[in-house]
Every structure is written in structure tokens, then in C-alpha cells.
């Protein structure tokens, strides 16, 4: 039998040949992550022990610039790191991608916009190994929650859903809506300390897949945020240049995880298929699986290349979100085919393929989802405004 059929897609994908320090550290942790992944999935347990390993290994601060005490990893290297972690434990990779992109964004702004305001945060991440949380899709362009102006700041009431890693986080990077005198709304952005009075976590995460991410709800009950803690105020429901930066940088990192899940499913399926007689149907399934996987890999490389241009704009959002949709489509299809290739053995939990089938479904749900993404791309193609398409 051709031994290349069983070689790991981590090591043989042409688009991921560079081995960065972040990737090498991730590889050293993979065995420990993989050992716990089954128990975590079966019990809906948050990957707390894996977070401690990430902190001890220096990956929490790996995206902070070297000058500020971090590891200096760029988006390409961070994506590779997350992809590798996803092979071992998808939940760890997805939860950690939320911290990773919340570090990568201010790091990019410090390096390319010379924004001094983000320096204290980055230095704290490096020195204190802070875990940053994202309220992500529960906020997005539209905003969520209510902010009321009071003397010296704002009082915040909100429920932030899908807060991955909520129980391990130090700061939640989020926002809330302020009603203006004319009835319009602005969104203020701030970092909410997770131990502040008025902040609590509600254990809501009982999900189909990515069961170990601990993506619980975070409640703000009259949380006070001082005026000095407001990093930005923007119009609600309208693209802002900051969100062009967020989209261009964050999504190559988040979708590196789903690519890793699909690659892992492919490797498991090839191993299981090799234990039974092969047929022309097996070859067909394996070929279609690898073709879809390659499409996902190429789409991800495109997203990384767009980020590497260091010029976020409405156009880079479009290109990034096209890549995001292509990865979701082809990665999900590749895992579907992996299940079919493996046959009945893929249905057993112990083989871990059915977990990948469940985990990959999460690729559907991050913004821009299929409908808004197509709307955005179509408007761009026809020269129409995209400011309110999200």
C-alpha cells in the first residue's frame, strides 16, 4: 500500500510548510491535548487544564510584539499554531483562537498604525499572561447590550452569549449600545474585567460540537465602565474601520481551527479505511475528500495572504469573507466524505471521527454567514455600498 496515503495532512500540506516557534510549541502540547479531548467532549468540560498548558508554554503572549515582551508571532504563524492545536483538540483551538485574535488585533494596530493606546494592554498580556475574551458574533456590527451614561462613565446591562473560554478569562473585549438624543445608537467599546462587580458567568454551553470551549453567557448587571475605559465609540449597525481590521485579522485565525478539524478528520478516515478492503468506491470517496480539503486549504491560504497585505478595507473584508465561506463549504464537505470513507467505524465515538463531524458544523455560524456574505460580495461586485451589510 502507498504509505503516503497515511501521512498526516499537518506535515504534508504544501500551503503550510513553514514551521514557526509558535507551531513547534503547539506540536509539543498536542499529545497532552489529544489525550484529554475525548473526556472533554463526552462531559462538556471546559478545557481549563489545556489553558494552563498554553500559559506555561508561552503561547498566551506569543502574538504580542517582541518589543513589548511577547513572542512576536504574526497572523500566518498564529494561524499555523491554531491549525495544529485543532488536530489534537478542536475545542482548545477554537476557544484559544478568540484570545489569539484579541491579541493579534491590538498588536497589528501597534505595529502598523503606531497606536500607543494599545501598548498597556499588550504589555499586560505578556507580563501577566492575561486571557482575553471575545463576545464575537453576539455583538458584531449591530452591537448588543445597553449602556447608560452616568457621572464619570457608563452603567452596562447586557448578556454576552458565545463567550468562549469565559471561565478562564481576565478581560472581555466587548461593547454596549448608547441611545442618542435623536433615537439613534452608538456602540461604545471597552474591556470588562471578569472579576468586576456586576459581572457573572452563566453555564449555558451544552452544544452539538466544540463542547469544551466553555462558550458560556456573560452577564453584565449594572457594570460600571469609567469614561477612561471606553476605547472607541461608533455608529451601531454600520461598518467601522476597526471592524475592517478585526475581520481581516481575526477570521484567518478562527478558520484555521476549522481547517485543522477537517485535516484531522481526513487523517482519521484514511487510517480507518486502510483497515478494510479497498474498492473503486473507496478511491472515489478519498479523492473527493482530498479535493475538497485542498479547496479549503487554498481558501485559507488566500485569507492569510489578504491579512499579510496589512491594508484592511471594505475590499479585504470581502476577500476574507469569501475565503471564510469557501472554507466552511469545503471543510464541511470534506468531513462528510471522511465519514463515508471510514464507513461504520466512523460512527464509534472512540475513533474520534464523529466528534470532528460535530465540531466542523461550527464553521457555519460565525459571521459573515452565507446569506450576508453573498449579499456583501454581490454588492461589491456591482459597485454598490456595503456599509450596512453584515
TrEMBL record:
EC nos: 1.14.13.235
Keyword Protease belongs to the record: no
Positions of the UniProt region annotated as Disordered: 1-21
Family matches, as SUPFAM superfamilies: Acyl-CoA dehydrogenase C-terminal domain-like, Acyl-CoA dehydrogenase NM domain-like
Keyword line: Flavoprotein, Oxidoreductase
UniProt-listed Pfam families: Acyl-CoA_dh_2, Acyl-CoA_dh_M, Acyl-CoA_dh_N
GO molecular function terms listed in the Swiss-Prot or TrEMBL record: oxidoreductase activity
Domain (Acyl-CoA dehydrogenase/oxidase N-terminal) ranges: 23-108
Name recorded for this polypeptide: Alkylation response protein AidB-like acyl-CoA dehydrogenase
Domain Acyl-CoA oxidase/dehydrogenase middle: start-end pairs: 136-222
Residue ranges of domain Acyl-CoA dehydrogenase C-terminal in the record: 256-366
Upper classification of the organism: Bacteria, Pseudomonadati, Pseudomonadota, Alphaproteobacteria, Hyphomicrobiales
Classification via InterPro entries: Acyl-CoA_DH_C (IPR013107), Acyl-CoA_Oxase/DH_mid-dom (IPR006091), Acyl-CoA_Oxase/DH_mid-dom_sf (IPR046373), AcylCo_DH-like_C (IPR036250), AcylCoA_DH/ox_N (IPR013786), AcylCoA_DH/ox_N_sf (IPR037069), AcylCoA_DH/oxidase_NM_dom_sf (IPR009100)
Compositionally skewed regions (Polar residues) per UniProt: 1-12
Claim: Oxidoreductase is one of the keywords in the record: yes
